[in-house]
Amino acid sequence: MTADAPDFPTELLRRFYLPFCTPSEVDRVLSPATAADFLLGIRAQYIADHMRVFRYFRRQRALCSRAYSLEDCFPTDHYEIYLASLPAEDRSLLQRVCYGDVYTAEADGEIFLSPFGPIVTISGSLRHFLEFGHLAMGAFYREVPLDVRFRALIIALRVMFGYESLDFDADPRGIIDPFISEQMQDSISMQMQFIVGHEFGHYFLGHLSEDQTHPAGRRAALGQGTEACVAYNTSQQQEFDADLDALMRPRLSNELRGIVINATCMWFGMVELYEHARDIIAPMPAWRRSHPSARDRHLRIQSTLRNYLSNDFIENSSGIIRAVDFMREKLTEYLSLHIDVFETYGSMYLSDEPNTEWRGPLKVDREDY
Questions:
Q1: DSSP-derived pairing of the beta strands 98-102 and 117-123
Q2: Residue 310's pLDDT is what?
Q3: 3-state helix, strand, coil in the chain (%, to 5)
Q4: Which of 32, 49, 167, 227 could form an S-S bond across to 37 if both were Cys, CB 3.0 to 4.6 Å?
Q5: How far apart are CA 156 and CA 348, in angstroms?
Q6: Domain spans of the chain, in order of start
């Protein structure tokens, strides 16, 4: 094909996506007709723009022993488990909402109105933030050295700031004891479900109604410019309401709801440390903040839903706050000397020294992964 061929630009675009998309998925990305197609385009665009992520998905396709699709590379368990806990009428309402994980620079959840309807997305990098955040703050069957815990916190925060490369599967940041990893998983799963429920809560509570939305742009596929979508106007009260809706709408036993509430409080503890680092690195005036602080959300949940929490759970919530306060002090001191750590893109590890208990063997970029 020559450069003067009529379909040359389209064919060039296809070549960006074919290493990690199927031909039919490329067609959907370039000519979206549904919300699911629009979501697929968001996924493909980020992968094509970020070489390390591109290499990871290209390798996944090469290693796949079954029928491959990019969509199948994104887990859906946190959506499915949360949906299964809802009353039938609520599940019916959510049939109008498209949802799925994405890779984005922003490690958070989002709901927005695409040209094809509402879409809920959660950044896949949140799992990495939660894993290393748990390692930093959690209590485990064995002692985790303080220096390892603190480096885990820095990795988690770098994920949130968008400076940590998202190639964790190819280049692990260290060796986490499998028993410790297993201890984290139930809590991480509940936290992911809470984030799902929080975004669905905005939909249930009417926060996407016309009087609470404004036009916004979202970059479409490579070369396709910016497509119009609608974002909702957030407010602190809306965030509180969506938090409570995410916790109270599911049909759960009181005991299980108490466990979910405590996992959610741990999530807010991690977010509070991110907010603390953000306020040092790039402070934002209070009047520009649409979300209440993580500490306020934590305490609002604890006070509003206290009837679902036993004394042990109350003590656990207080323990989370103590752990956050301890780490905040360490973080303040660290950032006064090492703010450059949050200005450099790449990878950080649980230990500087390779071939150690928490680091494992040294891996060389482009040779080992």
A1: parallel
A2: 72
A3: 60, 10, 35
A4: 32
A5: 10
A6: 12-72, 125-207+234-342
Q: What is the predicted pLDDT for the residue at 142? A: 85
Residues in the chain with pLDDT values less than 50: 1-5, 8, 214, 232
d(Cα 340, Cα 336) in Å, to the nearest integer?
10
At 1 the pLDDT is: 42
- Measured at the alpha carbon of residue 40, what is the angle toward residues 35 and 46, in degrees to the nearest 5? 130
The SS3 assignment for 347 reads: coil
Looking at residue 138, its pLDDT comes to 86
Q: How far apart are CA 82 and CA 173, in angstroms?
A: 30
Q: Are 339 and 345 in contact (CB under 8 A)?
A: no
Q: How far apart are the first and last CA of the chain?
A: 33
DSSP state letter for 121: E
The 3-state DSSP class for residue 228 equals: strand
Cross-strand bridge partners of residue 229? 216
Can you give the pLDDT at residue 231? 53
Q: Classify residue 137 by burial, with Cβ atoms within 10 Å: 0-12, 13-18, 19+.
A: buried
Tens-digit pLDDT profile for residues 160-172? 998 998 888 778 8
pLDDT of residue 226: 63
Strands (E), the chain: 98-102, 109-114, 117-123, 213-219, 226-232
CA–CA distance, 267 with 236 (Å, rounded to integer): 18
DSSP string, 25-45: HHHHHHS--SHHHHHHHHHHH
DSSP string, 90-105: HHHHGGG-EEEEE--S
Q: How far apart are CA 248 and CA 131, in angstroms?
A: 25
Predicted pLDDT of residue 356 = 86
pLDDT in tens, 290-322: 678 899 999 999 888 887 777 777 788 888 999
Per the document, the length of the chain is 369
| C-beta separation of 174 from 131 below 8 A | no
